């Protein structure tokens, strides 16, 4: 399967930890064995079991994620759960995601109850089923690793619920804190629609930086449905996930980038050169070009055009205002198509190897590395050819290869 560009969560019935795990397991059934193996690394209380079960309801088929633990299991404080996770043999990625989700949940619960997060210890994060839900969610987040996560507006629900702390309003106070800033809807259906565990997972995903831009074109790669435990008369109590994969265009991929453009006619060439070098070093800049143009009143000016990641456009614009004399710039979006490529090392020279749509390969040695490897022009030519030939041989693809 192609790299996952995005996983979207459609909160029809709501979001809970078990619904999150079930929906992703339904979409990616090949992952369930690995998930159960990871959960098996934990020290389970005697009599506890975990399993997936196919479920049918409201004319839909999906999965339930069922955790059965003995009643009366000792609830633990967040500090104890953290120590248990840190000492566990869980994979590093699973451990990091689980700790991140738990930390946000403990902070919200501590704020609600007026105690330090370290002291939080009650059903929502102390119960075994919640630990399993969060560790399971953490493993899937790490295993699938889409570039980004999105979700529909969240149903807010309403009403009252009996808890270990007495009768509390719905949505639960901790869930309300965790959902701050996220779009919600009131669809008129009461009850607990987003649990604190579900809200903590979403808060963690919302605060995790996206791993790159979403491609311009995507295709639906998988979809799954996770059923919740509660029956809702008005609608299916499901969380649906839709996974999108990047659409390959031959050996290329499409993506959307930001463009920034401005002209300078009142800054010295020496100072402008320094300014552009500093802008070029700003995180997110992909390319920076400059060209002579005639500006207003027939003045000779320098036009600057920057290609950048969309999420970095604001920071790059700020750098332009700080480093140059421009009082304004133009910002837009552009679609571009790029070939798959990688950088390999051959004889100490970095070589960029790219695959053409025909399947052929090209290689281009890094000129700075070639200059360091050889002094004279002929020696540089030999070093360049040797590095490119070596890189192409290593990346041979069905015998098709050529040099630029």
Please give a structural write-up.
The chain is of the alpha+beta class and 404 residues long. It has 3 domains: 4-248, no CATH class; 252-338, 2-Layer Sandwich (Alpha-Beta Plaits), CATH 3.30.70.1380; 341-394, no CATH class. It has helices spanning 17-27, 32-39, 78-87, 92-113, 123-126, 128-144, 173-178, 196-206, 269-280, 313-323, 367-373, 377-394, and strands at residues 4-10, 49-57, 60-68, 148-151, 154-155, 159-163, 166-170, 184-185, 218-227, 238-246, 248-249, 252-264, 285-294, 300-308, 330-339, 341-346, 349-355, 361-365. The protein is elongated.
Instruction: Name the poorly predicted regions.
Output: 397-403
Overall, the morphology is elongated
Question: Pairing-aware structural class of the strands and helices?
Answer: alpha+beta
Order of helix and strand elements from N to C terminus: EHHEEHHHHEEEEHEHEEEEHEEHEEEEHH
* Helix percentage range: 25-40%
Strand-residue fraction? 25-35%
Describe the main β-sheet briefly: 5 strands, antiparallel
Number of strands: 18
Overall average residue pLDDT:
88
How many domain regions? 3
Please work out how many helical segments DSSP would assign: 12
Radius of gyration based on Cα positions: 27 Å
Distance between the termini: 31 Å
């Amino acid at each position: 399967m192609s790299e996952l560009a995005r996983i979207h969560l459609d909160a029809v019935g709501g979001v809970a930890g078990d619904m999150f795990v079930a929906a992703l397991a339904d979409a990616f059934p090949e992952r369930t064995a690995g998930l159960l193996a990871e959960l098996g690394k934990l020290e389970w209380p005697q009599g506890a079991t975990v399993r997936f079960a196919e479920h049918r309801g409201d004319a839909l088929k999906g999965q339930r994620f069922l955790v059965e633990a003995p009643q009366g299991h000792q609830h633990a404080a967040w500090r104890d759960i953290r120590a248990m996770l840190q000492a566990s043999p869980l994979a590093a990625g699973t451990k990091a995601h689980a700790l991140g989700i738990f930390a946000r949940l403990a902070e919200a619960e501590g704020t609600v109850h007026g105690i330090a997060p370290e002291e939080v210890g009650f059903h929502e994060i102390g119960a075994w089923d919640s630990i399993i839900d969060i560790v399971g969610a953490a493993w899937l987040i790490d295993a699938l690793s889409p570039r980004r996560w999105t979700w529909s507006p969240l149903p807010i629900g309403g009403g009252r619920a009996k808890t270990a702390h007495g009768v509390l309003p719905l949505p639960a106070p901790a869930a309300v804190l965790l959902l701050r800033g996220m779009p919600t809807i009131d669809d008129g259906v009461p009850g607990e629609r987003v649990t604190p565990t579900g809200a903590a997972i979403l808060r963690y995903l919302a605060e995790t930086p996206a791993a790159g831009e979403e491609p311009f074109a995507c295709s639906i790669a998988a979809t799954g449905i996770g059923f919740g435990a509660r029956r809702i008369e008005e609608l299916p109590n499901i969380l649906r996930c839709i996974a999108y994969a990047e659409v390959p265009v031959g050996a290329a991929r499409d993506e959307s980038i930001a463009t920034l453009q401005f002209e300078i006619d009142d800054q010295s060439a020496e100072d402008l050169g320094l300014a552009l070098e500093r802008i070029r070093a700003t995180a997110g800049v992909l390319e920076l070009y400059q060209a002579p143009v005639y500006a207003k009143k027939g003045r000779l000016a320098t036009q600057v055009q920057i290609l950048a990641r969309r999420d970095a456009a604001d920071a790059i614009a700020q750098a332009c205002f700080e480093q140059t004399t421009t009082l304004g710039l133009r910002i837009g979006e552009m679609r571009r198509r790029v070939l798959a490529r990688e950088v390999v090392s051959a004889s100490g020279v970095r070589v960029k190897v790219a695959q053409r749509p025909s399947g052929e390969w090209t290689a281009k040695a890094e000129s700075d590395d070639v200059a360091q490897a050889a002094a004279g022009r002929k020696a540089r030519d030999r070093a360049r050819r040797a590095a490119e030939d070596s890189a192409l041989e290593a990346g041979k693809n069905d015998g098709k290869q050529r040099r630029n």
